[in-house]
Amino acid sequence: MKFTKEHEWVKDQGDGTAFVGITAYAADALGDVVFVEVPEAGKTLTKGDAFAVVESVKAASDVYAPVDGEVIEGNGELGNAPETVNAVPEAGGWFAKIKLTNPSQLDALMDREAYEAYLATL
Amino acid sequence: MTDVALKSTPLEDRHVALGGRMVPFAGYNMPVQYEGVMAEHKWTRAEAGLFDVSHMGQARLSGADAVHTLEALTPTDFAALKPGKQKYSLLLNEAGGILDDWMVSRPEEDGFFLVVNAACKDQDFAIIADSLKGDTTFDILADRALLALQGPRAREVMAQVCPAACEMYFMDCGTFEILGETAFVSRSGYTGEDGFEISFPAARAAELWDLLLTFPQVKPIGLGARDSLRLEAGMPLYGHEMDETYGVVESGLSFGMSKSRLERGDIRGIERIRAERENPQRTRVALRVLEGPPARDGAKILNAEGEAIGIVTSGVPSPTLGYSIAMGYVPATQSAPGTQLKLEVRGKPYACEVVTIPFVPNSYHRKPKA
């Protein structure tokens, strides 16, 4: 699993696809997630673009694409159960499954150790 | 962004020690939440929530002419405000636009106690100081903290801390002794629940805060839940539901205006007030979101044909109701409860319906009708 400074994660499936979501740190900072808008299949993602929205009581927050890709599937389960993002942010709370169109971008992201070191500076 | 030193309330170290997430608000370093907005919101509706609202402005006006000073600036009949009572009022500009909303108490015959919005207090106090009539004396109470204890179990707690205050009904006020200090207490708040607001010397505010938190019914509540609670109660927030561009009537705040003043016609901006009454244009409405995401401040309100007809001024997913709610402005012709409208969020329209205010019924401790 790789991480961004904006608190998204990417899990490379090794077959040219990956899952993306937000980290436990981000989910905790947001508080109770009450609404999630995930992208539709076919949407083209460019690294750094807002591709999903997660809402708490307090505010709406954009989720940014950690890498380039094409959406294979948005996590429709989050529509009925947005609290999954708080419960299991780095597993069942995934936002989208994507086809990696520029896999080398993964190399520039942080591994867990580097991400945790980054969190310690916040 | 310019770095401006944030001001502190007398309870800042308490918020930090309690794990409050501190954010800048109206120039103050304030707790937006402790354990989480949702949990704090629900706690306040079920138990008792303790809020630090010491960032708000407090002032006192005394003298026989204090009534005239206040009446020149507001649409409220303060001569008719009986000692021991509190009134919601509005600071108006010359044209009838709303400069701020106030809670004005009259603990004794001689002397009014004002609570004003933090973001507006410098402006408000300058206006008052420039408008003093006759023998009015004006004192800004910068040395006082303001605590709000809100919720169905607030009374049980106050019964231990200040039993005499529990004899008050909704919108009553009085001067009491707590911890040996003079406290101005009102039975009111900004949540729709029964509760108290306590003005207390800043130097000893932390002792009162700590004392209130020793009760198992009481938890500290941040500004996040304060906002969602007031929205469910249909209460306006300055800078959202009103500002200088809005008038008294269209913003649904005529309850801050006295009939006697309207009849006398001696209100700043009376022409605007009359025009809004006789020929209403836009009006504040409550909206229930029927599908899709929460609509927040700035979202467009559309009619059934998809044309923009208004704007959302506040919106939140309601923790009590389980659906999203919003307030905003629409043409008066489309403001009747039951009217089907749409809200535009991130470029897409979602169905909503005009409903009655408040969203969540209030539970004030009202004086029984004789």
TrEMBL record, chain A:
<comment type="subunit">
    <text>The glycine cleavage system is composed of four proteins: P, T, L and H.</text>
</comment>
<comment type="similarity">
    <text>Belongs to the GcvH family.</text>
</comment>
<feature type="modified residue" description="N6-lipoyllysine">
    <location>
        <position position="58"/>
    </location>
</feature>
<dbReference type="Pfam" id="PF01597">
    <property type="entry name" value="GCV_H"/>
</dbReference>
<dbReference type="GO" id="GO:0005960">
    <property type="term" value="C:glycine cleavage complex"/>
</dbReference>
<dbReference type="InterPro" id="IPR011053">
    <property type="entry name" value="Single_hybrid_motif"/>
</dbReference>
<dbReference type="InterPro" id="IPR003016">
    <property type="entry name" value="2-oxoA_DH_lipoyl-BS"/>
</dbReference>
<dbReference type="InterPro" id="IPR002930">
    <property type="entry name" value="GCV_H"/>
</dbReference>
<dbReference type="InterPro" id="IPR000089">
    <property type="entry name" value="Biotin_lipoyl"/>
</dbReference>
<feature type="domain" description="Lipoyl-binding">
    <location>
        <begin position="17"/>
        <end position="99"/>
    </location>
</feature>
<dbReference type="InterPro" id="IPR017453">
    <property type="entry name" value="GCV_H_sub"/>
</dbReference>
<protein>
    <recommendedName>
        <fullName>Glycine cleavage system H protein</fullName>
    </recommendedName>
</protein>
<dbReference type="GO" id="GO:0019464">
    <property type="term" value="P:glycine decarboxylation via glycine cleavage system"/>
</dbReference>
<keyword id="KW-0450">Lipoyl</keyword>
<dbReference type="InterPro" id="IPR033753">
    <property type="entry name" value="GCV_H/Fam206"/>
</dbReference>
<dbReference type="GO" id="GO:0005737">
    <property type="term" value="C:cytoplasm"/>
</dbReference>
<comment type="function">
    <text>The glycine cleavage system catalyzes the degradation of glycine. The H protein shuttles the methylamine group of glycine from the P protein to the T protein.</text>
</comment>
<dbReference type="GO" id="GO:0009249">
    <property type="term" value="P:protein lipoylation"/>
</dbReference>
